[in-house]
Specification:
Strand content of chain B: under 5%
Radius of gyration of chain A: 26 Å
Number of strands of chain A: 0
Order of helices and strands of chain A: HHHHHHHHHHHHH
Strand content of chain A: under 5%
Distance between the termini of chain B: 34 Å
Oligomer: heterodimer
Helix content of chain B: over 70%
Order of helices and strands of chain B: HHHHHHHHHHHHHHH
Shape of chain B: globular
Shape of chain A: flat
Radius of gyration of chain B: 24 Å
Largest sheet of chain B: none
Largest interface: A-B, 110 and 104 residues
Helix content of chain A: over 70%
Largest sheet of chain A: none
Number of strands of chain B: 0
Chain lengths: 310, 282
C-alpha cells in the first residue's frame, strides 16, 4: 500500500517534469520563428526609420527624426495618411451595415442557401491581386471604352451617349473605385463572422422574449444586437486591420495615381522604400501604421478577456 | 401563409442582390475567357452590342494562348513549389506548438496562444522593408527561397491558433489511456492524438496553401524576374506587360481563383472558429 502510493507519486512527478520539458521543446520552434522573423524585423523597422538606409548599401547612419520631419511636410504623405483613414473608415462603415443585413437574411435556412453562401464568399477567398485586375477590366480602368459598367450605365440611361467615366483618371472616381473593391472584398468576411454570432444566440432566449410579448424590433434591439456586440467587434477590428494595411488594391488599380492622389501609407512606403530604395524614409512612413495596430491589439485582448469572464 | 411566402420572397431578393454584386467580376472573368476578341473588344458606345451575351460563338483560343504563349504555367509551378514547402514547414512547426499550447497547464497556455495569434495581425506592409534588408543580407533576393522563408511568418501564427483549438477538443483521457498502456508521452501523442487530428491537419494544409496563393506584397518586394513569379504576382504584373489582352488575363484569374475558393469553402467552419475564437460560445 505504502509502496504503491510512493510509486504513484514518483511516476506522477516524473511525468510532470517531462511534460514541462516536452511542452517547452514543442513550442520553441514556433516562438523562435516568430521572434526572429516578426519580432526582430518589427524592431528593425523602427530602427531603420531613424536612419538614412538605402537599398544596396548595408551601412546606414543614425539621422534622428530627419525622415519624420521630411515626411510630415510632404503633401503626398499627408494625402496618403488621410486616404488610409478615409478608405478604411468609409469601407468598413458600408461593410458593417451591408453585412448585418446580409447576415440576417442568411441566418434563416432556405433551399439553395449553401450554394448562395459559396457565391457570396468568392470575393474574400479569391486572391485579391487577381480580382483587383478583374475589377480593372470591369470598370475599364485601363480601357474605359471597353468597360461593361460604362455600357450598362449607358444602356439604363444614367450615362449620356457621349459621356464616359474614366474611373482612375480623376482622384474622386479613383477613390470611389478603391472603396468599392474594399467593400466588395471585406463584405463576405464580415458577413460570415456576424452570421456565426447570430446562429450562436440560443433560440430559447428568443422564444422566452416572444412569450414575454417582445416584438421583432424589440428582440432585435434588446437581445440580438447586444449579444452580437463582441462578434461584430471582432469583424470590425479585423476588417480595419486588413483594409488599413492593404496596398494591393491601390498598387494594381492606380499605382497611387492620378498625381499621387490615391496613395495609402502602405503603398507609399513601398514606393519610397522598395521602388525608390529609400529604406529609411519608407520605414518611417510604414511606422505610422503601428499606433493603429497597437490600438486594435489592445481592443482584441480586452474582448478576449471579456468573453472569458462571461 | 401569403405573408410567409412574401417574407421568403423578399429574403431571396435581398440575398440575390448581394450574390450578383459578389459574383459580377467572376462572371465577367468567365465571359471574357470564352469570348472571341472581335466580340470582347467592341466599343462600349454601341447599344445594340450587348456585352453580357455571346454575340459570336465562344472560343477556347484565350485558354490555349494562356497555356502555350505566356509564362502562366511557370507561375503555377512556382506557386506549387513555394506552397508545398510552406505547408511542410507550417505543419512541422505549428502542430507541436498547437499541441503544446492546448495541453500546457492552465491559463498561460491560452495567453501565449492569444499572443501568437496577435502576431498574425502584424501586416506584411509593416515588415517588407526590414525583411527586404534581411533577404538581401542572406543573398536570397529574387529567389523562391525568400518566399519559402518568409511566408511561414503568417501561416504559423494562424495555424498554431487553429490547431490549439482543435487539440483542445480531443479528450485528454485517450492519451492518458495510452500512457497507462505503456506508451511514452511522445508515443502516446503519435499513436492517439495525431490520427484523431487528421481533419485539423488537413485544415492547416488548405489554409497555408490558400494564404500562399493570395500573398502579393512580399512577392512583389522580393522577386524581380518574371520566371520566378508566383500566380498572384505574375498575372497582374508580368502577364499584363506580356499580353495586354484581356482574354488570357481573365482566363488566368478565373482558373486560379475557383479551385482555391472551392477548397476554402470546404473548411470554412474551422476558419470562422479560428477568427471568432472565444467571442462565440458553443
Amino acid at each position: 500500500m505504502e509502496i504503491a502510493r510512493k510509486v504513484h507519486r514518483v511516476g506522477w512527478r516524473y511525468l510532470l517534469d517531462r511534460e514541462r520539458l516536452l511542452s517547452t521543446l514543442l513550442i520553441s520552434p514556433a516562438l523562435g520563428y516568430i521572434l526572429l522573423l516578426i519580432g526582430v524585423p518589427l524592431l528593425l523597422a523602427i530602427y531603420l526609420s531613424f536612419t538614412n538606409a538605402i537599398s544596396g548599401h548595408l551601412e546606414a547612419d543614425f539621422v534622428g527624426l530627419k525622415n519624420f520631419r521630411t515626411i510630415v511636410t510632404d503633401p503626398i504623405f499627408l494625402q496618403a495618411l488621410k486616404n488610409t483613414f478615409i478608405f478604411t473608415f468609409v469601407s468598413q462603415l458600408i461593410v458593417l451595415i451591408l453585412a448585418k443585413i446580409l447576415a440576417l437574411a442568411l441566418a434563416k435556412s432556405f433551399p439553395g442557401r449553401p450554394i448562395l453562401r459559396f457565391l457570396i464568399l468568392l470575393p474574400w477567398v479569391a486572391p485579391i491581386s487577381l480580382t483587383t485586375l478583374a475589377w480593372d477590366w470591369v470598370l475599364g480602368a485601363s480601357n474605359s471604352s471597353l468597360s461593361v459598367i460604362n455600357w450598362t450605365l449607358r444602356a439604363v440611361g444614367l450615362l449620356g451617349p457621349t459621356d464616359w467615366i474614366y474611373w482612375t483618371a480623376f482622384p474622386e472616381s479613383a477613390m470611389a473605385a478603391i472603396i468599392l473593391i474594399h467593400v466588395w472584398r471585406m463584405l463576405p468576411f464580415a458577413t460570415i463572422i456576424i452570421l456565426a454570432g447570430l446562429t450562436s444566440i440560443p433560440q430559447e432566449i428568443h422564444d422566452a422574449a416572444t412569450v414575454d410579448g417582445a416584438g421583432w424590433w424589440r428582440r432585435l434591439f434588446e437581445i440580438t444586437l447586444p449579444l452580437m456586440l463582441p462578434i461584430v467587434a471582432v469583424a470590425v477590428l479585423f476588417g480595419v486591420i486588413f483594409t488599413a494595411t492593404d496596398m494591393t488594391v491601390v498598387y494594381i488599380l492606380t499605382r497611387g495615381g492620378p498625381y499621387n492622389s490615391t496613395h495609402v501609407l502602405a503603398s507609399l512606403a513601398w514606393q519610397r522604400g522598395i521602388f525608390g530604395g529609400q529604406l529609411g524614409e519608407g520605414a518611417a512612413i510604414a511606422i505610422f501604421l503601428l499606433p493603429l495596430l497597437i490600438v486594435v491589439a489592445i481592443l482584441m485582448l480586452r474582448l478576449a478577456r471579456r468573453t472569458e469572464v462571461t | 401563409m401569403i405573408k410567409k411566402i412574401g417574407t421568403q420572397l423578399s429574403l431571396y431578393v435581398v440575398v440575390l442582390l448581394f450574390v450578383a454584386f459578389a459574383v459580377f467580376p467572376f462572371y465577367w472573368m468567365a465571359v471574357s475567357t470564352f469570348k472571341r476578341n472581335e466580340d470582347l473588344f467592341h466599343v462600349a458606345t454601341d447599344p445594340t452590342h450587348n456585352p453580357y451575351l455571346f454575340n459570336l460563338p465562344p472560343t477556347l483560343e484565350h485558354l490555349t494562348q494562356l497555356f502555350f504563349e505566356t509564362r502562366y504555367v511557370t507561375f503555377v509551378l512556382n506557386t506549387f513549389f513555394v506552397g508545398a514547402l510552406v505547408v511542410v514547414i507550417t505543419l512541422l512547426i505549428a502542430v507541436p506548438a498547437g499541441y503544446s499550447l492546448a495541453r500546457l497547464a492552465g491559463s498561460w497556455g491560452e495567453k501565449l496562444g492569444i499572443g501568437i495569434f496577435l502576431t498574425y495581425l502584424v501586416p506584411p506592409t509593416l515588415l517588407f522593408i526590414p525583411l527586404a534588408r534581411l533577404i538581401a543580407l542572406l543573398g536570397l533576393q529574387d529567389t523562391l527561397w525568400s518566399l519559402v522563408l518568409i511566408y511561414p511568418t503568417f501561416t504559423i501564427p494562424f495555424c498554431t491558433w487553429l490547431l490549439m483549438g482543435f487539440f483542445k477538443s480531443i479528450p485528454k483521457d485517450i492519451e492518458e489511456q495510452a500512457l497507462v498502456d505503456g506508451y511514452s508521452r511522445l508515443g502516446a501523442i503519435v499513436k492517439t492524438v495525431l490520427p484523431l487530428s487528421v481533419p485539423g491537419l488537413l485544415t492547416v494544409v488548405i489554409f497555408s496553401f490558400t494564404l500562399v496563393m493570395q500573398e502579393f506584397v512580399y512577392a512583389l518586394t522580393f522577386l524581380l524576374s518574371v520566371g520566378k513569379m508566383t500566380i498572384s504576382l505574375g498575372v497582374p504584373i508580368a502577364l499584363v506587360l506580356d499580353v495586354y489582352r484581356w482574354g488570357p488575363l481573365m482566363a488566368a484569374t478565373l482558373i486560379s481563383s475557383i479551385p482555391v475558393a472551392i477548397l476554402y469553402n470546404l473548411f470554412l467552419d474551422r476558419f470562422i472558429a479560428g477568427f471568432t475564437g472565444g467571442a462565440v460560445k458553443g
